């Protein structure tokens, strides 16, 4: 599945907008940038890597040799990467910022609203464009896993610096305290609830490098 790489899912949604409504959406986005607290429900979702809305005017589509397209509508491009399943993400989006979604997609043609959820899911599914290629540098790790690894690395780096300066007994005490503080960051991240073999394939491809004797 081209949209899935390990624990991550890449989503692209393209929806048409009537040109006379585009300026309204631009104004709404400008207001949203000045009111980040209104996006608290979105920013607090740890499954999201990022989410971006881009408005593409009908005269901005590229000519790649096919000739300049004659398009009646402007378009909204929504791009996002997230952990978990497609349904989990749409559910979290709809629950987290239903009013924000309705503002961002206000001008999109036949947008049904984020609530109730079923028409919203049908709309996203109908306008979703699958990716041809989706690369993930850390297929076995989700956003939380990476943050946990960074916290653990910071503690280990601090202990390395203390090792040369502290007496053995003091360092042993510092070591115990440090690992108690990050014990919840040390379990195996496990695998994603998504049907994907990319994590396993990535591990197999790395095996020869990992097992190679040092030179």
UniProtKB/TrEMBL annotation:
Residues 204-215 have a biased composition (Basic and acidic residues). Residues 190-215 are annotated as: Disordered. This is Uncharacterized protein. The lineage of its organism: Bacteria, Pseudomonadati, Pseudomonadota, Alphaproteobacteria, Acetobacterales.
């Amino acid at each position: 599945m081209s949209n899935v790489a390990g624990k991550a899912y890449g989503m692209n949604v393209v929806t048409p907008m009537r040109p006379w409504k585009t300026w309204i959406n631009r104004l709404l986005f400008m207001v949203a940038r000045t009111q980040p607290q209104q996006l608290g429900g979105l920013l607090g979702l740890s499954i999201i890597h990022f989410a971006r809305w881009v408005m593409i005017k009908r005269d901005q589509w590229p000519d790649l040799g096919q000739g300049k397209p004659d398009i009646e509508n402007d378009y909204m491009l929504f791009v996002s990467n997230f952990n978990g399943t497609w349904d989990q993400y749409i559910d979290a989006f709809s629950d987290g910022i239903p009013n924000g979604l309705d503002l961002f997609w206000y001008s999109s043609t036949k947008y049904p609203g984020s609530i109730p959820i079923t028409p919203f899911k049908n709309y996203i599914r109908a306008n979703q464009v699958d990716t041809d290629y989706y690369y993930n540098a850390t297929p076995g790790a989700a956003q939380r896993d990476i943050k946990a690894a960074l916290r653990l690395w910071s503690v280990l780096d601090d202990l390395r610096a203390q090792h040369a300066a502290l007496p053995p007994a003091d360092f042993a005490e510092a070591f115990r305290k440090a690992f108690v503080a990050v014990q919840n960051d040390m379990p195996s991240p496990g695998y994603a609830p998504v049907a994907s073999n990319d994590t396993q394939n990535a591990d197999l491809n790395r095996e020869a490098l990992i097992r190679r004797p040092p030179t």
